[in-house]
Structures are given as structure tokens and as C-alpha cells.
């Protein structure tokens, strides 16, 4: 029954016919910012003050994130993160250090232990501590309070981190406004009794990668003939006209530096250097038909990597890369679709790569057809057996896609790619795990063979085990990456 509960939990929501969909939002004021994505989930983030002079460690880097899904009475989740290396460990493991939240010297509460590291879109996030609901409530009261407010975090070795309130009220009000919670009982800043315009959670768009796509095939679709096009005079002349919109446009088409990859039976992806700045660069990407009469289609000028139907864009906010932004476009069989668009917060020296995962665009990527096509998994459609089954299959397919991507990235690591015995061992281990998962979940399903919940139980079991496997392999990839480094 646990797997049934797992599936049902995925579909929990508040339903209202008056809700409406909005586009993403990014807004900042003072030392606070809010970013809302295309599912109407919002993330408000606050930092230490940049203006305040360092005194008694008042400017030690710290950040808090407050996340809330759309809908009436949606619970706010909160976490805090201290800058890497910003405190004394005093001979103990950093994750076991004792931290407290102190507000106006009248409220004090111990923080929980450091949470496990996790991965989002290939970015590793660690060092986070979860805030309790009481801590979040006290924090929100302080952040919207008029007058002078002191919010600090302390540890047992005497370090202090002061959270700025500059801009907090404006940012939290903007989050309420985006989610339709101003003048409602559920607003943070301005409460009231209205409930008519509360925004509801929106299902992330599904991107179905065709099974014939280059990203699915075991071997490369690109032939030697395709590769030779990169130096073919006629092909380079054809591409020179398309590349005119880039900063790097050689006067002679012979000087063009092209990379050619086969995408489909009749289409190629061509990349070429497009621009370069102090610590960022971008390649142009074009979709090119085999028929020379069809003009190349421009996709982006800011690619930092293309492989097998996936375009990645990755930009540093500044040279030390304590904040980044990234996009991913995925071929769905007819076009490159924006799958993910995110940043990692302000450049505040919290962590390499940035403090938090702050998306404005998210999606559910799967291989093959959408098993839940025609079903809104954020509506009551998901609560009958058929809807629960199909929405669970969709969630499972997305996790399996992520698992496939991690396995590919492990196989591409130099430490693995150059060791055939190790590569074979990882392949065998994955095959053994897959057999175990399927057998274990089939056994669990058979206990419900006579009931309508057998298939949802099977899917819930596979989802649980696949998510655990994904986390295991992400840790494996991290360990192997350090060896490569």
C-alpha cells in the first residue's frame, strides 16, 4: 500500500475553477529576489547585506530561500545556506555543527542538521539546512515587520550571519501578487477575505523525445560523409550567409570553423563559434536540411554544448562563477523546445555555481509518447484509477530519462571511458539493478492482483526505487568526477 500512497502523494493539490495561468516572473529589490516558474511555483530568496560594512561578521555570506507552490493554503518551505568556508568547524564535521536562528534577541530556535547534497540539471547543491514551520512563521513576521529588525544565525563557535530585510516586504508582496494571494487569508504581506483570483498549480509541459532521435540511439547517427561537410567549400559558402548574424564572421568562407552532426535522416545540426566575452562564450546553432534549397534555421547564438539533440547554454554571472544561468533546448522530433531555464541567484559568494536552483521554465522530459496525454495531472482527472496510473507513468518516465542522462555522463568520464573493464562493470550493475527493480515491484503488485490498485502499486514501487537509484548514481558521478579532476 505504500506505493499507492506514493502515487497519491504526487497528485495532491487544491482545485479551483477560478485560477488562471501566468508566465514566469523574476523580480528583485534590495537584498531580496523572487523567481516564479511556469508551474506557478515561486521561490523568494534573501541574502546578507552588501552595503553594510563588515563588522562583527555582519556581512558573512548567508542566504534563505522560501518556496511556495501555487494554490490556496499551500505550505511555505524554507531553507538556509551559509557560505562555504565562512565559519569555524572547531574540529567537528561541518554538517554536525550546531546552528541557531535568532530574531530580535527575543526568539531563538535550533536549526536542523545539514541536508544531503542533491543535483538539479547537472548542478550540485549542498550545505542546506531546512527551516521548521515555526521558524518560517517567525521569519516571515520579522521580514514584513516595520521598523528595525535583527535576523541572525549563530553557531556554537561564535560565528554570526545577519540576514538583510532590505527589500523583503516588496519581494514577498510580489510573490503574493503573482500567485493571486494579495487580500486573501493565505497572503504573507496583505491579508484579506477574498478567494476569487487564487492562482492554481500548473502542470509542467511534457517534452516527448522520439525513440528515433539521436539522443536515444546507442551509436552516433553522424556519418563520415556528414563530417566532411564541415570542410566542403559549397556547404561552407551556404553556411556563411547564415552565420552573418554572429560576431565571428570570417571574410572568407574557407575560414569558417563548423561542426556537423546528424539529427535525423534529412536534417543536420551545425554549430560554429559566434561570440566571446571575458568569461563567457556562445556558439551559434542551426538546423540544416539536406536539401540545399532550404535555408538553415537559426536556433540560438549562445550554445556552450551540443550533443545528440540537446543544446545547453551555460553562462557565468561573473568570473568567479558564484552565480550562473543556464538553458536547455531539446529536440522533440519537429523543433528544439526550451526545456529548462534557470539561474542560481545573486552573486553573493555563497557557493561555487550559486546558492539555489531558481527556474523560470521547467518541463517533464520523457522518451517516447506521453502516457498521460490529454490528462491534466494537476486536476481531479488524476484522482481516478486511470488518471493516477497514467500520471504515475509520466512521472516514472521522467525519472528514467534523468537516470539515463546520469548513466551517459558517467560513461563519458575519462576515468570510465578509458577503462573498458570498469565501463562493463557499471553496465552490468545497471542491468542487474533493473532486473531487481522489476522483480521486486512485480512481487509487490501481485499482492494486489485482484484489485484495481495493482498497476498504481507497480508504478509507485518502480518510481521509489528509480529515484533512489538516481541519487546513488549522482553520488557515483560526483565521486568519479573528483577522480578525473
UniProtKB/TrEMBL annotation:
The keyword Endoplasmic reticulum does not apply. It comes from the Bacteria. Residues 378-473 form the Lysozyme inhibitor LprI-like N-terminal domain. The keyword Signal applies. Keywords: Signal. Coiled coil: none annotated. It holds the Pfam family LprI. Residues 1-21 form the signal peptide. InterPro entries: DUF1176 (IPR009560), LprI-like_N (IPR009739). This is Lysozyme inhibitor LprI-like N-terminal domain-containing protein. The lineage of its organism: Bacteria, Pseudomonadati, Pseudomonadota, Gammaproteobacteria, Alteromonadales.
Amino acid at each position: 500500500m505504500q506505493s499507492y500512497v506514493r502515487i497519491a502523494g504526487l497528485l495532491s493539490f487544491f482545485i479551483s475553477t477560478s485560477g488562471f495561468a501566468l508566465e514566469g516572473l523574476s523580480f528583485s529589490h534590495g537584498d531580496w529576489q523572487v523567481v516564479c516558474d511556469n508551474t506557478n511555483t515561486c521561490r523568494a530568496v534573501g541574502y546578507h547585506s552588501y552595503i553594510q560594512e563588515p563588522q562583527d561578521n555582519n556581512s558573512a555570506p548567508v542566504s534563505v530561500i522560501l518556496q511556495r507552490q501555487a494554490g490556496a493554503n499551500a505550505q511555505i518551505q524554507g531553507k538556509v545556506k551559509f557560505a562555504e568556508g565562512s565559519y569555524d568547524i572547531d574540529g567537528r564535521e561541518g554538517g554536525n555543527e550546531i546552528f541557531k536562528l535568532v530574531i530580535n534577541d527575543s526568539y531563538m530556535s535550533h536549526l536542523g542538521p545539514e541536508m544531503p547534497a542533491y543535483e538539479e540539471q547537472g548542478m550540485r547543491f549542498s550545505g542546506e539546512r531546512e527551516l521548521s514551520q515555526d521558524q518560517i512563521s517567525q521569519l516571515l513576521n520579522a521580514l514584513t515587520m516595520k521598523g528595525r529588525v535583527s535576523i541572525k544565525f549563530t553557531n556554537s563557535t561564535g560565528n554570526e550571519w545577519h540576514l538583510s530585510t532590505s527589500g523583503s516586504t516588496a519581494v514577498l508582496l510580489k510573490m503574493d501578487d503573482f500567485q493571486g494571494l494579495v487580500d486573501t487569508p493565505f497572503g504573507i504581506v496583505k491579508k484579506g477575505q477574498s478567494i476569487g483570483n487564487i492562482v492554481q498549480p500548473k502542470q509542467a509541459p511534457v517534452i516527448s523525445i522520439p525513440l528515433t532521435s539521436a539522443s536515444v540511439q546507442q551509436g552516433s547517427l553522424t556519418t563520415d560523409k556528414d563530417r566532411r561537410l564541415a570542410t566542403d567549400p559549397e556547404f561552407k559558402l551556404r553556411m556563411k550567409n547564415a552565420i552573418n548574424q554572429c560576431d565571428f564572421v570570417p571574410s572568407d568562407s574557407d575560414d569558417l570553423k563548423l561542426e556537423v552532426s546528424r539529427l535525423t535522416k534529412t536534417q543536420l545540426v551545425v554549430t560554429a563559434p559566434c561570440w566571446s566575452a571575458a568569461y563567457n562564450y556562445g556558439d551559434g546553432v542551426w538546423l540544416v536540411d539536406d536539401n540545399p534549397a532550404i535555408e538553415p534555421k537559426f536556433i540560438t547564438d549562445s550554445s556552450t554544448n551540443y550533443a545528440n539533440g540537446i543544446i545547453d547554454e551555460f553562462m557565468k554571472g561573473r568570473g568567479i562563477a558564484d552565480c550562473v544561468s543556464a538553458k536547455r533546448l531539446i529536440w522533440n522530433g519537429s523543433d528544439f523546445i526550451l526545456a529548462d531555464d534557470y539561474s542560481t541567484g545573486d552573486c553573493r559568494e555563497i557557493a561555487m555555481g550559486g546558492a539555489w536552483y531558481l527556474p523560470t521554465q521547467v518541463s517533464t522530459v520523457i522518451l517516447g509518447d506521453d502516457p498521460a496525454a490529454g490528462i491534466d495531472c494537476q486536476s481531479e482527472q488524476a484522482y481516478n484509477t486511470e488518471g493516477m496510473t497514467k500520471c504515475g507513468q509520466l512521472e516514472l518516465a521522467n525519472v528514467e530519462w534523468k537516470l539515463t542522462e546520469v548513466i551517459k555522463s558517467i560513461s563519458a568520464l575519462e576515468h570510465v571511458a578509458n577503462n573498458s573493464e570498469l565501463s562493463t562493470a557499471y553496465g552490468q550493475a545497471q542491468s542487474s539493478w533493473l532486473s531487481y527493480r522489476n522483480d521486486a515491484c512485480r512481487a509487490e503488485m501481485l499482492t494486489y492482483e485482484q484489485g484495481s490498485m495493482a498497476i498504481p502499486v507497480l508504478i509507485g514501487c518502480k518510481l521509489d526505487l528509480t529515484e533512489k537509484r538516481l541519487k546513488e548514481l549522482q553520488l557515483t558521478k560526483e565521486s568519479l568526477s573528483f577522480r578525473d579532476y
